[in-house]
Amino acid sequence: MNEITRKLLVIGAGPGGYTCAIRAGQLGIDTIIVEADKPGGTCLNVGCIPSKALIHAAGEYETIAGAAEGRSALGITTAKPVLDFAKTIAWKDGIVRRLNGGVAGLLKKAGVKLIAGHARFRDGKSVEVETQSGAQTIRAQAVVIATGSEPVALPFLPFGGRVISSTEALALTEIPKKLLVIGGGYIGLELGTVFAKLGAAVTVVEAAPRILPQYDAELSAPVAKRLSVLGVTVLTGAKAKALVADGRALAVEGGSGEQMTLDADRILVTVGRRPVTSGFGLETLDLDMTGPFIRIDDRCRTSMHGIFAIGDITGEPMLAHRAMAQGEMVAEIVAGQRRAWDCVSIPAICFTDPEIVTVGMSPGEANGMGIDVKTDLFPFKANGRALTLEREDGFIRTVARADNHLLLGIQGVGAGIAELSAAFSLALEMGARLEDIAGTIHAHPTQSEGFHESALKSLGHAIHI
Ligand code: FAD
């Protein structure tokens, strides 16, 4: 068996793993990364990127279809659009392929060796990889586990046939006539909205009293309103119970206990994701866990010396940018730098229609911690740019300490608002107060003026409302 020794071994080339390996390579660390599938992980291959590509395509189609049906307020009319969905999927796959090549190229440029194969721990310092050219043993002083997460199935709805996860939903070759989405979290709603815009009859079954239960009701309301306009049926407080009619329908118990049978061409289960902790000998290391996740400290160190863990395998929030930030930090720690996890907030974006951005604390979270806060919001219906873009649904909300006006959280909901997440995060990281936002000139006309106005409102002198 071939044996290679390196200073750093990274297992998994998702956003966490490949960022860690690239940064390590930049720092001159002799690094090897092992990936069982394509470089880029869940995010690039079956997550963030393909979903956002389809969200864009569906939005374009829906706008044109709206014009064809006489719904354009801009006076645009056109013939009914025709969708070549195979071409849409090929376009999406082309983006993914380009980025796969990009990640492989960046690893190479950083001097990192990428090995294709499934790594399996032999002990805390070495793994075995079954590669195309035979078995290989890799030894390293430091090991980073970045094996990510996978979709959770419901016990009575195993994946297969009509029952699909987000991975298969992103690779469908036909638009389902009837799509049932089990789970009204961000992944289910992003994909449900795609297929609704492309013509599917979509029903969302959510066990909580409202969709997007991880966000407050004020933020999720514009999304619920838009789903209704798109003709999506949302059943809240409802539970999927069993597959019936030879797998062609689903028994569902409604919020008031009523029994329903809903037929569907496809049943998309998006009830959560779980860390990938089995199938690669992790159990032999006996690492400390927190629930299903590997327990880490503020340097992403596990309970075993020389073994780090990053990304989805380490817990919530399971987001690509958290994994990347952890990966970068770990590479610098392995290089001997003094680093620790000290970010003020991890932004979260829900690419629904409209989009939701949250950074820091919501008013409810701040109140729950006994902090006296000033909370205000500025609605996009009073924002000129939003009106010119037909984006008047939504708002930007600021949450600041009542005593010293330090910003604790910024949230917003609105079309295209994802791009404002950087301004929101920066404000929190820089320790901005309401006066800092009020004293910053925000360009006109932009949706970002809503941020300025929300701060002004908390200070008692909003101009445009
Ligand atoms: P992963 O990306 O899961 O990568 C882990 C890699 O490890 C995989 O490539 C896997 O093949 C490899 N691997 C596992 N075991 C082994 C082994 N034994 N040997 C070798 N290789 C192995 N996040 C966002 O921030 N923004 C979004 O918009 C967003 N949208 C999403 C949409 C969908 C539909 C989904 C499913 C997820 C989305 N996410 C989004 C979440 C995001 O994809 C994850 O948080 C992110 O990919 C986690 O990165 P990671 O590096 O921890 O693991």
In short:
The protein has 465 residues and is an alpha/beta fold. It is 31% helix and 27% strand.
Describe the protein's architecture and organization.
- There is one protein chain.
- It is globular, with a radius of gyration of 24 Å.
- The strands form six sheets. Strands 1, 2, 3, 4, 5, 6 and 19 form a seven-stranded mixed β-sheet that branches.
- It has three domains: 178 residues, 3-Layer(bba) Sandwich (FAD/NAD(P)-binding domain); 109 residues, FAD/NAD(P)-binding domain; 111 residues, Enolase-like, domain 1, CATH 3.30.390.
- With 465 residues, it is α/β, with parallel strands linked by helices.
- Helix 1 runs parallel beside helix 4.
- It binds flavin-adenine dinucleotide.
- Flavin-adenine dinucleotide binds next to helix 1, strand 2, helix 2, helix 3 and strand 4.
CATH superfamily of the largest domain: FAD/NAD(P)-binding domain
Q: Spans with pLDDT under 50 lasting ≥5 residues?
A: none
- Gyration radius from CA atoms, angstroms: 24 Å
Biggest sheet architecture = 7 strands, mixed
**Form type:** globular
- The secondary-structure class comes to alpha/beta
According to CATH, the fold-level topology of the largest domain is FAD/NAD(P)-binding domain
Termini distance? 72 Å
This entry's quaternary arrangement is single chain
Number of helices: 13
The molecules bound to the chains, other than polymers, are: flavin-adenine dinucleotide
| Number of DSSP strand runs | 24
Question: What is the correct CATH architecture of the largest domain?
Answer: 3-Layer(bba) Sandwich
Helix content: 25-40%
| Relative strand content | 25-35%
